[in-house]
Amino acid sequence: MGDTTAELVASALAGDRRSIAKVLSLVEQGGEGARTAISMLHPRSGNAWSVGITGAPGAGKSTLTDQLVLRMRATGGEVGVLAVDPTSPFSGGAILGDRVRMQSHTSDPGVFIRSMATRGHLGGLALATPQAVRVLDAVGKAWIVIETVGVGQVEVEIAGHADTTIVVVNPGWGDAVQAAKAGLLEIADIFVVNKADRPGADAAVADLQGMLELSARRAWTPPIVRTVATAGDGVDELFEAITQHRGHMESTGEAAARRAARLREELRALVAARVEQEVDARCSGAAFDALVAEVAARTRDPYTAADVLMAKKG
Amino acid sequence: MGDTTAELVASALAGDRRSIAKVLSLVEQGGEGARTAISMLHPRSGNAWSVGITGAPGAGKSTLTDQLVLRMRATGGEVGVLAVDPTSPFSGGAILGDRVRMQSHTSDPGVFIRSMATRGHLGGLALATPQAVRVLDAVGKAWIVIETVGVGQVEVEIAGHADTTIVVVNPGWGDAVQAAKAGLLEIADIFVVNKADRPGADAAVADLQGMLELSARRAWTPPIVRTVATAGDGVDELFEAITQHRGHMESTGEAAARRAARLREELRALVAARVEQEVDARCSGAAFDALVAEVAARTRDPYTAADVLMAKKG
Fold it and tell me: ipTM of the predicted structure?
């Protein structure tokens, strides 16, 4: 307690789990503490490979994540998991209840699991997630898995902002058309048909193949991997697909290009958030009311009123 | 022509139709000409009563507008009509083709009809419409009818920003639930069941009454008027309902309060549009690329990059 942010970050960099958790809370809050923490951590980031996992609720994403973490750990590197839930107001440890299957890792100090939720401010998660990835990256995680609870717009955006993005579907989950509608075809680097022991798995694979053939040709064709995550079936193949995708991205320079594009978007989002705060600040309060009254009284026109609002210190 | 904006506005104020049309084009474009024109016209505005008409395509809005314009003209005042179509890229005279029924007014110098369309920039119409209303108001139109082609979000917003808002439905057009879904229940000051000679008119009226009874009690209960616009049936009753609503709004002070609320929204929208331009200006060009490169190279962190972008002149 009473730790300065700098001390906290130093302790997180030394591997202290509670400090890592506190630093993640700081960056989620996004205030002065976040600035200090990120200024210290950003220079040490850039070494982790991030894997996004998205798909409908109940598709088996948590179980797949659990299995993948085991494979990632087998490579010797440490793993960070961000479980992102824009529909929940609870962050930190609060929604770990449904992550009971992850308990197999709780005794492994090389795995750090974190739940992230909205805390009520719009776009907050989309801004906070890259910062949280940056923290886990800087403190030495070699792999970072970003798992979302569903396939809402925010979740697809968040999971899509990874080095490798995995889209999980189920037999009969819906057809490939549904995946295309949700914008999943564009972001998927790898498709997983999980619960592939169920009827309809062949049809799901065929649907996805058909959609992929119809879509624009890319340098990387997303493979379709069948898994039964609960039994661990197909998870080796999935990890192999991730490794191949990583190799492709790194050898072609695509990885760096994609990261630069993500940075551009992140900066735009940061600027847009600040500018939004400014609009709110400018268009409220007594000074705003007075301006509206002047325009209503015809002693001032709307454009010069807007000039005054833009000139005002936000 | 080489007219200065000031000359053009003076000529529009003198009643010259071509000048009014040119001034409307200026305010639609929203540049320096719009500023000059509005600064001259805003002090002279505030006398017109605006009537918004919205409803599904084919509900008979144009025919109703045509009939209402005749009633309004009978009061001696001049009338301006804005036909707003966010789905069309054509402004000015271009979409007047479907306004052939309005030709009965083309020989009447007391009626000015203007089509407005998007010109491709998002939110452009929502910003431009209040300015166009201001122009018609300032040049002396006593009544301004704002007719939208459909019930999209932008159209409902535009038609709802009038002194009196009329929502037009048809028998079997859908039920009142559909109207409620589209947000029409909140904005309607008057409901019109047009084509009331068709089967299902009673059911449509009953549906609307049911929905109104379920909704929050207001000082003004929207009347439901049956019309057959093509035959002119019920249009006197509709104009009477408008007059009663106007009387209610003016006597209770609601009219001024609603106009002040619209002004607040207009100012917010003007500031938001400028701020968006600022974000675009800040997050583009060589300086932005250089900053992204610095963040990617870890010589700068995202927050201080955002600081630089915010400090930059927009």
Answer: 0.83
